[in-house]
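pasting input
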Amino acid sequence: MYKVLFNRHIGPNPDSFLLPEPVLDVGDYGAISTKGLTSGHQGCTGCGMVTGTNQLLRALKLTGKHVVASIGTGCNEVITTQNTSCWGDVSVDHNNFPNTAATLSGNIAALKALAQAGAVSPKSTVNVGIAGDGGSYDIGLQALLAWIARGEDGVYVCLNNQAYMNTGIQGSGATPYGTNTSTTPFGKVIRGNQRTQQYILDLALAAGASYVAAACPLLHRDLMIKAQKAAAIEGPCVLEFYSVCPEGWKSDTDVFHEITELALETRSWILYEAERERSSNTVLFTLNYAPKKYLAISEYLKLQERFSGMRDFPEMVERAQEIIEARWFFWKPVLEANGIEWKEEARAS
Amino acid sequence: MKEKQQILVSLNRHKEFVVTGPFVEMRERQGSSGPEKREPTESDKGKFLHPPEILTIEEVAQKPIDGLDTPKVLNAMADIGPEARLFVYRPEGKVTRHEIFEDPRVCLEIQRGAVIENLREKPKDVSGWRTHDFFIDIKGCLGDECGRCAIVCPENAIHLMGKGKGSFHEIDPLACKGCFICWVECVRTAADCILVDGKTFDPGMRAKHFGE
Amino acid sequence: MATVLAGNGAAAWGFRLSRVQCYPYYPITPSTACSEQISRWVHDGAMEAVTINAESEHSAASQIIAAGKSVRAGTATSSKGLLYMIEVLENAAGGGVPCGLFLGNRATGAPINIWADNSDAYAMRDSGVIQIFAADGQETLDSIIQGYRIAENLRVRLPFAVNLRGFTGTHAYEGVEIPRPEEVNRYLPPFVSLHPLFAPEKPVTYGAMLSAYPYRRHKRNQMAALSNACEITLKAGQEFAEKFGRSYGHFEWIGDKKADLVVALLGESASAGEVATRHLQGKKGIPGVALLKIRLFSPFPAKEIAQALHRAGTKALVVLDEGLHHGGVLPPLAQRLTTAIQLYLGGKGPKVASVIGGLGGSEVRQEHFQLMFNLADNIAEGNPYRPEPYWLDIEEDPIFVERENQVSPKLWRKWGEVWKKQQRKEKFCSPIPPDTNEIRIYSRAGQGAITSAVGFTGAGIQNGYQLLTVPAFGSERRGAIITTDTLLNFHNERRIRSFMRAWDVVILYDDTILYSPEHQVLDGLKEGGALLVNTSHLSVKKIREILNVGQKKVRVLTVPAEAVSERLGLKHINMAMLGALHKVYDKVPFEPAQGYYEKNVPRPREKSLEAIRLGFSETSDREIQRTRKESRLTVSQEFRDWRPEDHSQESWPSALEEVQLG
């Protein structure tokens, strides 16, 4: 276990006790000089995951380093490499579905070997692994946790769209309770996904990650700070991006903003980061966003047809709300210190 | 009673991380400026691998290589045929290794060995995907002060043109799939300057997104 | 000068001399020791490489494939570990990544079996990897170096695997020439990545998704690259021979140039085949015989092998597969050979019979090869033979049957007509005279018998003999009785790696082993052979009595090794036993061997050397007044026969009655 401390301040945080200098804060407004993927990929219209990838790459390139991406099979990979490559000046190593972290590990080892031989300067390259939630929570978990446990220096990004979208929307370890997917259909007897979702960042932290952070591309300033921090902090860093998926979530392609906002306001997606101080095994948690008003989970369920079944079952909605409250409770000390109520009843409008 | 304060072990040169109970507060470092600023070492400077070149007979003919007997190389390549390649490795500008070989992996559409050289690829035209046309009215665009449409665009279709005052954004018509994300972003947080099918006002979409 | 190395150690040297830069590993029997050795070197700073303590073979394979895009990478595995890797290995072949694997071949089960056969290598044959089969430690070391040379060739750029049979290969200690690093450097140039990831100048994408049109073209190219490996292997072998004096090709032809009868196989079992072939060569009434030891399995040198068979005028070919066909027509090697012969020689080629043997650690012995040549001879004469594989050492389904009632009626109905016409011929099956000396040690796991046997092997090799030590392995843990066998060959002109199992010396590390009902220590001891026992209280007479030696011509000797070690404060008795062995067996002379021990004995060196000397001098076949009395209680036969009674059965009948009464 580790000692838990809270950052009293809520909000994006370019500073870290693990870094001598703050990372670049791109601010809420202003053009960003770097580019992400090239255009012409095969992703869905309105794909929130590619927005996340773009922002990640733009942030990593802001550090001035060469980016080597070890990518796992999944939407992000197939839409960007079908008979071409949309990765521009990023070198890409796609190997397979279950081994993103192992591929990342191999590339980190290669960089280390080349640096030992004096062929490259290790600090001028950032190794990043990119996989989906299925490739991180399920089939790739073994490789991911072992990579973290070995303490290798790299960034792992989970683009979480909460199901296996590439193969046709099957339930994964990250699928929320009650969701209708093609393998957890909303049936007459069994109503949607009966599991509650797991949290990869909790697992990563327990395995010994130096830095973990949850972000969403709607708040790009926060996401880009986190990506740069992960690139700069030594040791294994794990990021998880909220990735709106119009196809899998059965939502309109134009409601990227609304869905993400609802996720944040209902606290079904919590923006936070955690940094580990190794000598005292202390983890500093920072809440990066606290909703102005808490919305009930039922609001979040409205825009997405994947939740259409459970909407009509108050006990299921209640259960979903309980899951959220149980997780939000963790932040009680910070919220109280900032004069914010932590209970839903008190703040729901 | 005042709780005992502690300082978290930190590399940060500017901030101190003060621990009080379960809380940490950042404050500017007082007195000393924190840990020494590390001068960039040799290993921080960008030293990278030099990729070897794999050249066709035409490429060798066009650009003879210093240190190689080009006519001899060309003859040897011609003997092999169209699949002949010249492997040249010159990490510091000088040829350290070279070899003429018949490449089993020549595959015009996808380059050698299913390894794609990214910069040789041209973006695909996905304009057929969209059902509405999007266009930024440059008169209203805030240019590099804003950039909010470009950062949320899933297609990387929006590019900044120019610099400073007078700069503006443009949507690449080959790359835009028409998802409305930039439009929503622009209306909500910026200048509301994106035209959809040539119109500034789309009552249906505005009602849906902004309750107007 | 040869050094004593086990097959795994030789493989590790192969990787080290190839200057492997990235070596991830995950342990699996029997190839683990290769990875252990490399980790040891890296941790001691003797080898500059980045090792990764992977959490599975799947990840280890992923890591060599990732790292292999930028640096020279390798790993070792076996059995299920290889099967776990296969999922990603296709990406190495498809992506043109020249990384290396060392495989200690092992059965894949189920049932679980940790011993050798080729099932794992056969399972990977469709993953596009170059597969080389080595027959001993030396060939393993040399083949790994050549493997990188072949794999990194611009016309190939593919992963390779060097296979060595588990235990009899991976755990056999023998003399291996370790080439000088600078010479290897001249043979194998530094690794240059064609498409490095760490070159921003030319960013690349590996493993893109290809649709049918480019996919099929790419796959065709991949196959072309793999078949190029056939020619490149030959070239790499020739150049290796020029530099290092040991030549390697697609296969080795052992025996007569003109050979009517040929037995073909892969890998280490060829050592027994070689002994049998040499024995049969030139015997009266036996036509030309040869062993076809195939080294390159993938890409299969079909044309070259067909031509070789044609040149030799071969009439019958018996193919030994150490693995199964699983519903195929013939097992993999037999299948490939039949296809090669059909394609290149058509009806003019030899007839082919298939034999399955060596499964799950089954020994393929010299007499098996005699049977296979016998079978080939019958086939060459035009006798009928099975269109499906024969099996070795299945009593009820033998290759030759003398009498009908030897086998089950069902089998007789199926194969009776074939069996009747397949005769075992004495000229093929005459006993092979022992040509080697062999020593067996019975010890308890943890007593250090392997260390002493390996030391003895080293001393013998340094003095110009060919020695081989093979420890037995199983699931036994500390305290169990294990065997360690050493073979000595005095014919320097040829290598012999196969045991006759006729012991010149049998050594007991512990006198209590005399009482083990599982171990008949006199079994296999040659007439005039010696039995050496570590004991401080048993007399020679008593030992003869316990073993019921009677009038048999057996020398019995004792050595108080435990007392010697105790006196010196040594934890293990093995050094004293090593000295004693020299006293019992003088063909490896003690004086020159001491020079070797002075440099190589385990620490504390002085005490170990003293123990060797004392072990030598205190070994005797005379009745010596021992200081200690036997403390073992006499055990009655009743006690030995006693078993806890099984009461559970007794209540059954009455319980059943109750049910019926009901």
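fyi Helices of chain B lie at 57-62, 70-80, 148-152, 181-189, 203-210.
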